[in-house]
Amino acid sequence: MLAKHPDPTVDHVLKTWAPRMIVQGIDYNDLMTTGARIGTWDDWCREWCVTAAGHEEFARQAEAAGNRESATEAYLMASMAYHFGCNNSPQNLDEYIPAAKKRVECSVFESAGRAPRSTL
Q1: What is the pTM of this model?
Q2: Interior angle at CA 103, CA 27 and CA 9, nearest 5
Q3: What CATH number labels 41-113?
Q4: pLDDT band for position 119 (50/70/90)?
Q5: What does the DSSP 8-state code read for residue 115?
Q6: At 91, is the pLDDT very low, low, confident or very high (cuts 50, 70, 90)?
Q7: 16 burial class (0-12, 13-18, 19+ CB within 10 angstroms)?
Q8: Contact by Cβ (8 Å): 56, 90
Q9: At what angle do helices 8-23 and 68-87 cross, to 10 degrees?
């Protein structure tokens, strides 16, 4: 169960969306740590993008090291964090649009990682 958040909008969104977020791929620890960094609803997209960027950086490092499975998983985590960041806060297009683009970019990398490699 989630603790009561001081911002009523953030509190409502976390309590009603947490199950969906977790089922869709948000790690529980990311939900807790990102939620704790969010002070007000205006922080929502920005803080989820911070979380997403951490996963994206890990994915790039894993990819560079040849760890395809780890990179694929991290790109998925990044894509989902960008997704929930921007989809829940379209009120600020300066944050929404870059987050939406990053969501797609990470999703493409994640999908490419799941595709079988050619044996030719």
Answers
A1: 0.86
A2: 60
A3: 1.20.58
A4: very low
A5: S
A6: confident
A7: exposed
A8: no
A9: 150
